[in-house]
Amino acid sequence: MQTNSSALLLHLTIIIKYLNTFLFNCIYIIVLTKPLKVVFVVNVSTILAALFCATAPISGVLAVEPAKTEVSQMEVRSGKERISAIRSAYQKGEYKTFLKEMDESYKRADLSGLIQMRQKQVPVAFQEKWEERFLSLQKERNQALMAVLSDTDDSAFAKRVRAATVNLLTPEQEKAFSRLNSFIAMAPNTGSNADENKLIDIDLEYEYKILHANVPGQESDKDLSLVLRMEKMDKMVAASKTFQDSKLKQAVGIASDVHDSMLARNLDGNYLNGLLKSKVKPANETEEKALAVLALYQEQFSNLMKDIDHANR
Questions:
Q1: Average pLDDT over residues 29-35
Q2: What is d(CA 208, CA 198) in angstroms, rounded to the nearest whole number?
Q3: Which of 59, 100, 190, 217 is deepest in the core (most CB within 10 A)?
Q4: Nearest CA to 271 among 77, 64, 75?
Q5: pTM above the 0.85 mark?
Q6: Tell me: the pLDDT tens digits for 201-258?
Q7: SS (H, E, C) 153-170
Q8: Distance CA 56, CA 216 (A)
Q9: Exposed, middle or buried by CB within 10 Å (0-12, 13-18, 19+), for 110?
Q10: Torsions phi, psi for 123 (to 5 deg)
């Protein structure tokens, strides 16, 4: 049974993992101090939600993963190819047993710790200032990564860089994701209507399932996290069919249409960060420059988080 303390530790693990994966896929970052205490939840509405669409597995709190000496076959495939394969297996029912096991686990779950994390208020002015700095760094990083590529570079590496940094969302799609992502920080029955409360319940359910679906260091379990995100979106779409809130129903449909594309983009970003952490030497000057950019901005993102932590002590 999940205790409040364990839930807080799992949330802290998420923060560490998503900082390590260079924030390619974060939208909500829960910032804590010592002792474990929630300071605020940061909402960056133009990037996919960490708990909604991220791909990094959960590992031990403050654990450091061993450096890789080679890239796994899963990671060699592009994000689009991998998501396509997982989607096909999911639709064929190949994960049916796993999903049933997660349903049974959720029925026995103690959600008090996760709910407590969602009951914290966000200082709006402070949040907006942080978002501005975060988005500025993210834009700079993506521009710097693109700058190292030549227009004629059609290598597999160049394709991964372009795929990881592309802005896939139209303003309408960003708005739709932003509304759905807002439920990540909301406790049950705090929505503005019954339809919102239904999506909050689904979000909480899959937050729990994703936290408990992964085993550190096992590549196959990264797929399980992705399968859960696919099922989560399917469940939101199914629920929205009876919504009275027409705008919320539309937002679910819009987000669903580009969900797999966003998952694929995040996988490509994680792949690049995996190279940064590995012992694999860059194959050429372009790769060397790109990894140098990643390292530079990873440090700047880390410093940004430290500044916020110091400001809130």
A1: 39
A2: 16
A3: 59
A4: 75
A5: no
A6: 999 999 999 888 865 544 455 789 899 999 999 999 999 999 999 999 999 999 999 9
A7: CCCHHHHHHHHHHCCCCC
A8: 10
A9: middle
A10: -65, 110
